[in-house]
Amino acid sequence: MLKFYHAPWSRSSTVFWLLEELGVDYEMELVDIRGEGGAPEEYRKIQPNKKVPAIEHDGTVVTERAAITIYLGDTFPEKGLAPAVGDPDRAAYLSTLVYHDAVFDPVVCAKVHGLSYVSNDYPFGLYDDMVANLERKLSNQPWAAGERFTLADVILGGGINYVMNMLKALPERPVFRDYVARTTDRPAYRSSAERDAAMAAQIPFFQKMMAGGKA
Q1: Angstrom distance (rounded) from CA 22 to CA 80
Q2: Model confidence over 83-119: pLDDT tens digits?
Q3: CB atoms < 10 A from the CB of 210, how many?
């Protein structure tokens, strides 16, 4: 049994897409992270900070997108979406996943909130260095791990898509636009995005936003 803890239009949306890419059976449990006080206290037993995503597989709980991706890719090797141990692409695959969670997300948050600092102040380094790194990487290869699509492209592609097109916190450079177009031109992305939007439309927080009110 695989259970997926999810909140529509959140950081867990990429794991929703990832599960659709894998095509495995799972049960979804919605977590109300946007209600007063955030997710219910009971949810801390699954995720200590009451964040999504999280999964529970045969009694084992896994949190954080990088860990969830590695775990699921290795649990379902027959899907061919995760380079195996010994594969030359494995290092780039793992590095991309951890880089996204440990560098990309934090520097974007720092940028959006106007945090001023020098590189040695924080372990995630500088925003400009992150942008240059991703532009260089994606200019030299079509996918995160090399020449083939992997689950790392779900996480990185989803992140770049949201930050560039929704948050407007990443420059719209051709290499980023082309990469997002490649990653989102997949049936699993379209399916999960449509279902996610339908679920979000049922949530009062987003209903108010869509109606033009202050959420």
Answers
A1: 9
A2: 999 999 999 999 999 999 999 999 999 999 999 999 9
A3: 11
How far does the chain reach from its first CA to its final CA, in angstroms? 36
Q: What is the pLDDT of residue 37?
A: 87
- CA 131 to the chain's CA centroid: 17
Q: What residue type is 46 in one-letter code?
A: I
Q: Specify the DSSP element, H or E, that contains 161.
A: helix 151-161
Q: Which residue has the tokens 């949190």?
A: 63
Contact between 19 and 68 under an 8 Å Cβ cutoff? The reply is: no
Q: Is the dihedral of CA 58, 97, 46, 23 positive or negative?
A: negative
Cα-Cα-Cα-Cα dihedral sign, residues 196, 197, 203, 205: positive
Those residues with Cβ within 8 angstroms of residue 95's Cβ, 6 or more apart along the chain or in another chain:
none
Average pLDDT, the chain: 95
- Would you say the C-alpha torsion 149, 151, 157, 160 has a positive or negative sign? negative
User: Token digits for 199?
Assistant: 């679920």
Taking the CA atoms of 145, 148, 154 and 160 in sequence, report the sign of the dihedral they define: positive
Three-class SS state of 188 = helix
Span 125-166, pLDDT tens digits? 999 999 999 999 999 999 999 999 999 999 999 999 999 999
